[in-house]
Design goal:
This protein is an alpha+beta fold. Helix 7 runs antiparallel to helix 8. The chain has helices spanning 2-17, 36-41, 43-46, 112-119, 126-132, 161-185, 189-210, 216-237, 241-262, 274-278; strands at 32-33, 50-60, 65-69, 83-87, 100-109, 136-144, 263-265, 271-273. The longest helix has 25 residues, at 161-185.
């Protein structure tokens, strides 16, 4: 009996001393499609929820603050339409009263202090804040107009002539590299040689841009990539499939080094030279 009791205590001690498992990472909140009138009538239910609502602009209150309301059918005209305040971090163009927009953002019970802290310079005026205090509002991350433009996303500056040339080179390099990997996987050395030749030309064009910038390591990476592309072309001409399979990952790593350092993804999913959009 004592032996059983000792075993039980040993097991129990193990449970007590064992570290608790790390909590699973929180999954992103789903976006709930909902009508503006439903949010207005059920604030307690939707507060803290990320919603997507499409409604007409009811009134503008400044550069980044407006209200939306669901339109009412002529057949039924009961209670007045309730509007929902929208506060966006920025709007690249004004919304027009009566125009439909799709707003994505978090529903809150409007509190001037909370909105001022979270949206900073986008917070509404004291008069608007007093009007909507305690009422439904959406802190918008997207405001999409009829032309499918997200007005709440900052527009990047126009490309310089040099950036345009770099962009043109990258539009040659990207598909050629994808095709090169496919050719090597299929042991198609003839196509691998053609794609490597295209890559070499593209890297030479990209190098011309980097030589105008204060980033010597980017010049070195581009030059290394061009040399590797030439090496791959020679391996394909032999042909040396094993050599190709070893060289392609080396080229990919060089490209990744430069991308990680100097490329940034914009709100619209496109990529730009980091220095050009951070000024």
């Amino acid at each position: 009996m004592r032996t059983h009791w000792a075993v039980f205590l040993t097991i129990l001690a193990g449970f007590v001393q064992a570290p608790l498992p790390a909590p699973a990472p929180a999954s992103p909140k789903p976006v709930v499609p909902v009508a503006a009138s439903t949010v207005a009538a059920n604030l307690d239910r939707f507060a803290g929820t990320t919603v997507s609502l499409t409604a007409a602009v009811a009134q503008r209150y400044g550069a980044t603050v407006f209200s939306v309301a669901q339109t009412r059918s002529a057949a039924r005209k009961p209670a007045p339409i309730q509007d929902v305040l929208i506060v966006a971090p920025l709007l690249t163009a004004p919304v027009q009263p009566g125009a439909y927009v799709t707003v994505i953002g978090e529903v809150i019970r409007f509190d001037p202090a909370v909105v001022a802290a979270r949206m900073k310079d986008a917070a509404p005026s004291p008069e608007v804040a007093a009007k909507y205090a305690g009422k439904p509002a959406v802190l918008a991350s997207s405001v999409i107009n009829a032309s499918m433009t997200d007005l709440a996303k900052k527009l990047p500056p126009a490309m310089t002539p040099g950036e345009i040339e770099l962009n043109r080179a990258m539009k040659t390099i990207s598909p050629a590299f994808t095709a090169l990997r496919q050719a090597v996987t299929a042991s198609n050395t003839s196509d691998a040689r053609d794609q490597a030749t295209t890559l070499s030309t593209g890297f030479a064009a990209a190098a011309a841009f980097w030589k105008t910038q204060p980033h010597p390591e980017a010049v070195a990476w581009t030059d290394d990539a061009r040399k590797l592309a030439d090496e791959i072309a020679m391996l394909a001409a032999k042909p040396d499939v094993d050599g190709l399979k070893a060289a392609v990952p080396r080229l990919q790593q060089v490209c990744s080094n430069c991308h990680n350092q100097y490329r940034v993804r914009l709100d619209d999913g496109s990529y730009r030279y980091k220095d050009a959009v951070s000024k």
